[in-house]
Design goal:
This protein is α+β, with helices and mostly antiparallel strands. The protein is built from four helices and five strands; from the N terminus they run E-H-H-E-E-H-H-E-E. The protein has one domain: 2-Layer Sandwich (Heat Shock Protein 90). Helices cover 30% and strands 25% of the residues. A hairpin with a 3-residue loop joins strand 2 and strand 3. Helix 1 packs antiparallel against helix 2 and helix 2 packs antiparallel against helix 4.
Amino acid sequence: MSAEDTGSRAKPVNHNTVRLTFLSIPENESIGRTLAAAYAAVSDPTLEELMDFKTAVSEAVTNAILHAYPESEGDIEMELSRDESRVKVVVTDFGIGIRDIEKSMEPLYTTDTSGERSGMGFTFMEAFSDHLEVISEPGRGTRVYLTKRMGGR
C-alpha cells in the first residue's frame, strides 16, 4: 500500500531490508562482509566509508563466528537496512552471550587463550562505525547494532 492509498502525504520510507542467516563457520565471514559492502554501495559511499563499514561488519560477524558457539556451530543472522544517509546492520547470534559487555569492549580484552586473537574486535567496530550498540544475555546470545553514514553526508 502506498502513502497515497492511506491518505498520507508523508515521504515513503525505504523498506529494502536484507536478511541473511548463515552458519557460524569461518568462510561465512567473507559472505557477510561482501553482502554488507554490496548493500552499502547503493548509498553512494566514499571509498573510505565503504571500507570502514566492511571492517566493522567483518569484526561483528567474526566475533559471532568465533565466540558465540565455542563447542558447536549455530545460526548467525545479519540484517541490513538504510535510510537517506545511513546504512545499518544488526548481527545476531543465539549462542553463549557475553557476561560483561563493558569489559569485553575494552581494547585488548580477549577470552582467547591461544594467543591468536588481539581483543580488538569491538574497538574496531566502534572506530569504523558511527554508532555501536551491543546487547547480550548469557545463555541466550548477542546482538550487535552498527550504523554508518554514507555518501559524504
